[in-house]
Design a protein that fits this description.
This protein is of the alpha+beta class. It folds into three domains: 110 residues, Beta-Lactamase (2-Layer Sandwich); 74 residues, Signal transduction histidine kinase, dimerisation/phosphotransfer (DHp) domain (Helix Hairpins), CATH 1.10.287; 161 residues, 2-Layer Sandwich (Heat Shock Protein 90), CATH 3.30.565.10. The strands form three sheets. It has a five-stranded antiparallel β-sheet with strand order 2-1-5-4-3, with helices on both faces. A hairpin with a 5-residue loop joins β1 and β2. α6 runs parallel beside α10 and α7 packs parallel to α8. The protein is elongated. The model has no long low-confidence stretch (mean pLDDT 88).
């Protein structure tokens, strides 16, 4: 009977430990001397430990992260501690210690890397929006004070009003881009049964691009669909926004007289590519991975001079990903850049 009870207890213990192993959070048990008596796979991964080899080792001999060592030695476990771990990959752990029995410790760990990254992005986003709006507001306030306190000639008055209008338009563009981004991020995946004529899209892109360039750049617009009419599935306004952003960026950042090539080309797999190639100053390799981040600018002062909000490429990336494609960027300093939207075959048809 006793053997049966022991067997049942052992089975319940194994079941309990299996349940702990199933949790994404880590669990580690320490004795009164802070030696490891048991550790779950998640905790071993969090702390960079081996669940078998490191048993009965003093944990602070193995995990030397200063915040963790200080927290464990301090004895005040009312609050959690955040620790930056750097074994292989950079992760952020939230750690909580609870004392039980005769000086034994239960160490609970949770990987909050993505949460911390999201919080950082949120803080940066709010700070960037505040900065982008504060700058034109400051300019407008200065002009308003000037008009209210100084006598201006008609020429001066028109110049001030023109500059005020530019700043107001800048704020309006920022608000519009923010609303577009929020709408895109909060909307369901676009349906694949709403078809849009590529010729019409390219026509509107060409009209807008030529108007923005005002004959300052030699621009070419080419559609290659093997003599057939091409259609793509999705939301027309989003495709226009993504394609239009790439063309307007090319116009803004390409020096006068340099060429801009806009192409729609069908692919052998049934998909398609929309590309914008410019003859601009190019982009250094270290900047390319961050270009689609909100408000990221290679040259902040130049972006503001050309009227950019810093949200265009972020909008482009979200639009194309929602439609199952991707944004590719290739560039070389001094030799221009090429931005390419790939459209999957499921969203392309020839009629």
């Amino acid at each position: 009977l006793k053997d049966v009870q022991i067997g049942e207890e052992q089975a319940r213990l194994r079941e309990f430990l299996s349940a702990i192993e199933a949790s994404p959070n880590g669990v580690m048990l320490l004795d009164a001397n802070d030696q490891i008596t048991w550790i779950s796979s998640a905790a071993a991964d969090h702390f960079g430990l081996n669940p078998q080899r490191d048993l009965l080792q003093r944990v602070t001999n193995l995990v030397r992260q200063p915040a963790f060592v200080q927290y464990l030695a301090g004895g005040d476990y009312r609050d959690v501690v955040k620790c930056q771990m750097s074994h292989g990959t950079q992760t952020v752990l939230q750690i909580l210690v609870r004392v039980y029995g005769d000086g034994l410790k239960l160490v609970l760990s949770q990987d909050i890397t993505e949460r911390e990254r999201a919080d950082t992005m949120r803080r940066d986003f709010v700070a960037n929006v505040s900065h982008e709006i504060r700058t034109p507001l400051t300019v407008l306030t200065g002009f308003i004070e000037t008009m209210g306190s100084l006598p201006l000639t008609e020429v001066e008055r028109k110049r001030v009003i023109s500059l005020m209008t530019q700043q107001a338009d800048r704020m309006q563009g920022l608000v519009n881009d923010l609303l577009t981004l929020a709408q895109i991020e909060g909307s369901p995946r676009p349906a694949s049964d709403r078809w849009i004529k590529v010729d019409a899209l390219m026509g509107r892109i060409e009209t807008d691009g030529l108007a923005l360039s005002r004959e300052r750049h030699p621009m070419s617009f080419v559609t290659e669909t093997n003599g057939k009419h091409c259609e793509i599935a999705g939301i027309e306004s989003e495709w226009l926004s993504a394609m239009g952003n790439l063309v307007s960026n090319a116009v803004r950042y390409t020096p006068e007289g340099k060429p801009i090539e806009v192409r729609w080309v069908g692919q052998a797999d049934g998909g398609a590519e929309f590309s914008v190639k410019d003859g601009g100053i190019g982009i250094a390799p270290e900047h390319i991975p961050r270009l689609t981040e909100r408000f990221y600018r290679v040259d902040g002062s130049r972006s503001r001079e050309t009227g950019g909000t810093g949200l265009g490429l972020s909008i482009v990336k979200h639009v194309v990903q929602r439609h199952g494609g991707e944004l590719r960027i290739s560039s070389e300093s001094g030799k221009g850049s090429t931005f390419t939207l790939t459209v999957p075959a499921a969203r392309v048809r020839l009629v």
